[in-house]
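Kindly review both lines to help learners:
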Amino acid sequence: MAAAGAKLDRMDQANIYASLPTYYEGRLQALPVGFQAEKHAIVIDRSGKRFVSEYDFNIGEALDRRDPVTNEPLHLPAWVIGDCRFLRHASVFRWYARKSSGWLVQAKSLRELSRRLQLPEEAVTKTVQRYNQFCLKGRDVDFHRGESAWEKFKVGGAEALGAIEQPPFFAVPFNRSILGTKGGARTNARGQVLRPDGSVIAGLHAAGLAMANPIGTRAVGPGTTIGPNLTWGFICAESILKDNFARTNDRTSHDRRSGCLRW
């Protein structure tokens, strides 16, 4: 696209999501799965503090938030920590733990868990205590977990809050993966690729992951990746067909005027 003179935009953006470790063709890869939304678990960053609602639809955006000066992630590395009920209700972690040795960390106390994760013990303990208080009161004052329309749908009418208090305690790394890039060529409403001056590059269209996505990093709901790809693919196809039809009509009219039309 750039070689053709296209204007590129949003090259620093992508649809970010949490991931589980998995192997593909013998190599460790990231599988995008929202595994952090469990009742007796929270997500903490390297400071030992929460930074987002664990049920937030755009949790990947928070996970990838950058320092405006250094451009380094503010909250990575991060972990999901929970008590024995967390693992009991999410037994899938035992399966994924087999794929990566040391991925699932277990401890008899939160302080021991903090030491094993090399996190500040006091911060982790206070974070869990504060969250447990929210559980008693029935409301997450910090991040309003379970209160938005999406989060209510996610829990399906159940309680979103559950205390972390029954040992043993567990932790798993909370890392990111890319569902799809959001950068690419700038286009107009017909999917035609534009130059930096706004003019159209004839015959060149872009859709889906090849275009500068109109909604950027933010996800707007299930289908954020597939929906725009299908929609813009349809728009581009329709645009190409209209252009081809117009060119065919132009050639036909020219042939008729020149007397070269054959039947």
The first helix runs from residue 59 to 63. The chain has two domains: 2-10+180-258, 37-173. The chain has seven helices and eleven strands. The CA atoms of residues 39 and 127 lie 16 Å apart.
